[in-house]
Amino acid sequence: MKLYYTSGSCSMSCHIALEESGLSYTAVQLDFSKPDSNTAELERLNPLGVVPVLVNDQGKKLTQNAAILEYVADQKPESGLLPAAGSWERYEAVSWLSFVAADFHKAFTPLFATKAIWGQEGGQAGGQDEFKKWCWGNIKGYLKYLDQGLAGKDYLTGKKFTVADAYLFTVGGWCEDVGVSTDEYKNYNTYISRIYQRPAVQRVMKAEGLLS
Ligand SMILES: N[C@@H](CCC(=O)N[C@@H](CS)C(=O)NCC(=O)O)C(=O)O
């Protein structure tokens, strides 16, 4: 399998899932600011021009984090990266996956767009104050929801790490970039530290150049 990714972006969730699964894969790093033959290939594979894209061993392509994460988990059911298809626990995990994809991930997108709109980054400096406050409020609302949902749990679905955790860990890593402090969310912070310590997560972060 081949995964097209950019460092630290949402595609890191798929990279973590592949690494956790133990499946054999190749990770192709792209840099949209330095277009080359790999970025051209990505655009051919995905007309939306975004990562992640997964090409499986039969040459079939899959886009969208949620779909790729489910696919990877199902290639190695014994990894426990998702509960068995058809079980109630599976739908609970997919509910978290959908929350991260449709709500949490997308709450960051407008802040990343501030540079394109106003020529300024969406973090602590620059941007339009009222707009940024509105975006920060949304993200904090989701962090509070997550903090409550994680009480007494090791991972989103309970005791087992799933691909939903890989995705939440990845997106949660952007809080600092956009100027949102997570200090008040104790359960959430403990949870993020737990995932950070996983050997597969460390390997992926090193491979993506996020850790030395
Ligand atoms: N809904 C898509 C979102 C994909 C997406 O937004 N990818 C971003 C990175 S997080 C991207 O490639 N952006 C293009 C860019 O940075 O130029 C999915 O889940 O795969």
Descriptive labels:
globular, Glutathione S-transferase Yfyf (Class Pi), Chain A, domain 2, alpha+beta, 212 residues, binds glutathione, 9 helices, 4 strands, 2 domains, Glutaredoxin, 4-stranded mixed beta sheet
Q: What is the H-and-E element order?
A: EHEHEEHHHHHHH
Largest sheet: 4 strands, mixed
Q: For the residues shown, what is the average pLDDT?
A: 95
- Strand percentage, roughly? 5-15%
Describe the structure.
- The chain is an alpha+beta fold.
- Helix 1 (12-21) links the parallel strand 1 (2-5) and strand 2 (26-29).
- A four-stranded mixed beta sheet has the order 2-1-3-4, sandwiched between helices.
- It is globular.
- It has two domains: 2-81, Glutaredoxin (3-Layer(aba) Sandwich); 88-198, Glutathione S-transferase Yfyf (Class Pi), Chain A, domain 2 (Up-down Bundle), CATH 1.20.1050.
- It starts with a strand and ends in a 5-residue tail after the last helix.
- The chain contains nine helices and four strands; from the N terminus they run βαβαββααααααα.
- It has helices spanning 12-21, 37-45, 65-75, 88-112, 114-118, 129-149, 163-172, 186-196, 199-207, and strands at residues 2-5, 26-29, 53-55, 61-63.
- 52% of the residues lie in helices and 7% in strands.
- Glutathione binds next to loops.
Write the topology of this structure.
Elements: E1 2-5, H1 12-21, E2 26-29, H2 37-45, E3 53-55, E4 61-63, H3 65-75, H4 88-112, H5 114-118, H6 129-149, H7 163-172, H8 186-196, H9 199-207
Parallel strand pairs: 1-2
Antiparallel strand pairs: 1-3, 3-4
Helix pairs in contact: 1-3, 1-7, 1-9, 4-6, 4-7, 6-8
Glutathione is lined by residues 9-10, 32, 50-52, 64-65, 101.
